[in-house]
Amino acid sequence: MPGPLVIVAIGTALLAIAFLSSAIVALRRRRLFGTAAGVTLALLLFAVAALMATISVATQGYRALTREELAATVVVQPTGPRHFTAHFIFPDGREATYLLAGEQIYVDAHILKWKPIANVFGLHTAYELDRVGGRYLEIEDERDSARTIFSLAEAKPIDMFALRRRWAAFTPLLDAEYGSGTFVTAERPDTLQVLVSITGLLLRHAGR
């Protein structure tokens, strides 16, 4: 089922076509003012439709956030000194396992907070897990020891987070865009919950 932004984009595009048709009729009747007005409105509506379609594609993979939400369950299993596996189980059923180095597991996410005007189109605070990595307790080890980091984000043709960094046109719609990260010790077998709230990301031991 198409999302609300796709429906808005289609409706806006159809309205733009209607204005463009009116402009063509006005041109045939040599009504220059009507032609200019119709073309101007059509171009404006086509631009709005394109913007809505772009946002719809760019926010694929992001999940709406209205409360504290479980983003993933992680089963941690040490495999040797300062090495461990992290098996992720996502809410949609996907699973992935990563071999990490360090004493701690680190997870971060992208958070998008939309302004009230964007809420009208069904856009609310959303998140997407971005990376998982191993983390060392000592700075010297971070500098000199093996670094392990992997992407958790789903592949997409364009990404809203990247678009916001490049184009100021999204400023009126986005209130804030930021990264949030969290880490805990991973030196013993454990089951963790990656949770996202409106204040950011956190890791919690399952059952606590």
List keywords for this structure.
single chain; 208 residues; alpha+beta; 2 domains; 5-stranded antiparallel sheet
What does this structure look like?
With 208 residues, the chain is an alpha+beta fold. It has two domains: 4-58; 63-205, no CATH class. It has five helices and ten strands; from the N terminus they run ααβββββαβαβαβββ. It has helices at 4-28, 32-58, 116-119, 139-144, 160-166, and strands at residues 63-64, 69-80, 83-89, 95-101, 104-114, 126-135, 149-151, 174-185, 190-197, 200-205. Strands 1, 5, 6, 7 and 8 form a five-stranded antiparallel β-sheet that branches. The chain has a five-stranded antiparallel β-sheet with strand order 4-3-2-9-10, with no helix packed on it. α1 runs antiparallel to α2. The longest helix is centred in the first third of the chain and has 27 residues, at 32-58. The chain is elongated, with a radius of gyration of 23 Å. The protein starts with a helix and ends with a strand.
